[in-house]
């Protein structure tokens, strides 16, 4: 987590002047989002997040994200609205980067959600899926199933993370290729709905944030990602059935998954675990040990993968 | 700039419950202060900065900083007030660290101040010095003149930063030791009043912040530090006479420096330049090149040092 780009106060004032949001009162770099520079911007007209997009978010993708958040906000989902300037533009340039001014939402990110909070998160995910079922936007999921072999190959020496990891990943990739389903309902999904990316107050979801991995994929795969990230102990070894059932109840109250989707959940969750195992392993191998960026240990996602591989894994998704 | 310590939401709620400031609405890590973890904390009662003190700020020093800010706030200076809990305590424990809840102040830090803003900063520095003239608190300046030789020795291979730097530093240390004044007015000073540490709205100072280098030293040395950090081009090669005169006018409108202090300013500014040259060189040598922390180039302070060494340096302090 880091602010990479410094914003000059004069440039900031000129940017803010494009909008009907008053003048700058305060602007502080915040440690939110790993790949962008984020500022908490206060003006005489309210509070906003100013995001400067660094290299990982492609400028070409920005119109997709703006349209997606506009759509979700209009549909009444708890997402931060993109603010448009007087001429209707949401994407600006500042400090040599593309930038957006985004609605500030109250709420805090949880680290250890309760079952009640898992139910609320599941409900918010389901409500978002309902709003996206007929949505015409589309984006290739560059972190999706078809890309995992390439991500694994580019991650570096997996055995340097954990002896034997390369062989276990290869076996899993083969199995997933042989069994990955086709024909499940697909639309744009969040694809990264970890507790980090859900703002809550008590048991109320105040915002789903950080849509920069959003892409077209199975909606049930989004459920699997959320299950994997909300329902396990920190070490990934234990799935908390109370949290898992609450999450599924919350989601199924909004979206009626088909029998085929329900049956696919353990497999999709194996895929989700592998996806985060691989990207964390990549970052683990490529982040200098002395860097002040937190390297996230990949092994809890290997533990999840093993748990989802067990014969009784279907029970983890019982509502 | 980095947030080092994660605060658990439950621990945060328990901390906030000690105060009469309502309940948590939002809490975001902010990239302010290099050595502490800072959060912008919003509660139903207002907005605050929550600071967790990492290793560089010694727990033993915290009561000094709290008393200093309490004193300055009572004196009407534009500083963030320390918030005291229902039992009167300002220093708490959270996430294994000492922590304080501090008043949030509006304003933004400038990068390229105008003369009018320099005048305002000089005035705020002078008003603070008036409030501190009779203040009983005291703290050794671990970054002060008596420590520079040790700091230079511990910085590492200065010639690796710039060929010939070691010899130039040694010569300067000898000269400063031979000429450093005695008997100038002393009290607690800010000792780090860079533009980073002054919040402004337009030409109004809304807050002097980051007092963690505050210590007992010559008040004129504080003026010299502020002069060196507000009045030069980014590369340190050019002193802007308009900004410098404005800064001095602003300050002298609050504090009447003696002739001896005025005469000492170029020498004190050489010392100030050396102090930041040495600490930046230390960080430059000791920060891994791959780290995401911004290494501040030491050479602009070598340029300042050379400028203050010139025969006509006294003119740089003309109001």
From TrEMBL, chains A, B:
Tagged with keyword S-adenosyl-L-methionine: no
Pathway(s) the chain acts in: Amino-acid biosynthesis; L-threonine biosynthesis; L-threonine from L-aspartate: step 4/5
Family, per entry: Belongs to the pseudomonas-type ThrB family.
Domain Aminoglycoside phosphotransferase: 27-236
UniProt source species: Sphingopyxis indica
Designated gene of the protein: thrB
Keywords annotated in UniProt: Amino-acid biosynthesis, ATP-binding, Kinase, Nucleotide-binding, Threonine biosynthesis, Transferase
GO biological process: threonine biosynthetic process
A molecular function (GO) term: ATP binding
Name of this chain's protein: Homoserine kinase
Catalytic activity, reaction form: L-homoserine + ATP = O-phospho-L-homoserine + ADP + H(+)
HAMAP family to which the protein is assigned, alphabetical: Homoser_kinase_2 (MF_00301)
Domain of life: Bacteria
Xref: Pfam families: APH
InterPro entries the UniProt entry points to: Aminoglycoside_PTrfase, Homoserine_kinase_II, Kinase-like_dom_sf, Pseudomonas-type_ThrB
EC number(s) from the headed UniProt entry: 2.7.1.39
């Amino acid at each position: 987590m880091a602010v990479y780009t410094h914003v000059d106060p004069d440039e900031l004032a000129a940017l803010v002047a494009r909008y009907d949001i008053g003048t700058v009162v305060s602007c502080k770099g915040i440690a939110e989002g790993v790949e962008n520079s984020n500022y908490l911007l206060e003006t005489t007209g309210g509070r906003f997040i100013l995001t400067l997009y660094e290299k990982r978010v492609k400028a070409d993708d920005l119109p997709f994200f703006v349209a997606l958040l506009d759509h979700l906000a209009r549909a009444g989902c708890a997402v931060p609205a993109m603010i448009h300037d007087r001429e209707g533009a949401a994407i600006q340039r500042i400090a040599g980067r593309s930038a957006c001014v985004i609605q500030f939402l109250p709420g805090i990110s949880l680290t250890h959600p309760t079952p009640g909070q898992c139910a609320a998160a599941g409900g918010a995910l389901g409500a978002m899926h309902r709003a996206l079922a007929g949505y015409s936007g589309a984006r290739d999921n560059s972190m999706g199933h078809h890309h995992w072999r390439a991500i694994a190959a580019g991650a570096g020496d997996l055995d340097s993370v954990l002896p034997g990891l390369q062989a276990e990943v290869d076996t899993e990739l083969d199995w997933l290729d042989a069994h990955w389903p086709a024909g499940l309902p697909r639309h744009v999904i969040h694809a990264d709905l970890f507790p980090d990316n859900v703002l809550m107050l008590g048991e109320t979801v105040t915002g789903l944030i950080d849509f920069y991995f959003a892409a077209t994929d199975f909606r049930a795969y989004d459920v699997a990602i959320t299950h994997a990230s909300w329902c396990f102990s920190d070490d990934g070894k234990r799935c908390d059935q109370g949290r898992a059932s609450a999450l599924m109840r919350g989601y199924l109250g909004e979206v009626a998954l088909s029998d085929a989707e329900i049956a696919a959940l353990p497999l999709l969750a194996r895929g989700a675990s592998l996806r985060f195992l691989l990207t964390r392993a990549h970052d683990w191998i490529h982040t200098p040990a002395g860097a002040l960026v937190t390297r996230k240990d990949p092994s809890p996602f290997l533990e999840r993968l093993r748990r989802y591989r067990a014969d009784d894994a279907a029970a983890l998704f019982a509502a």
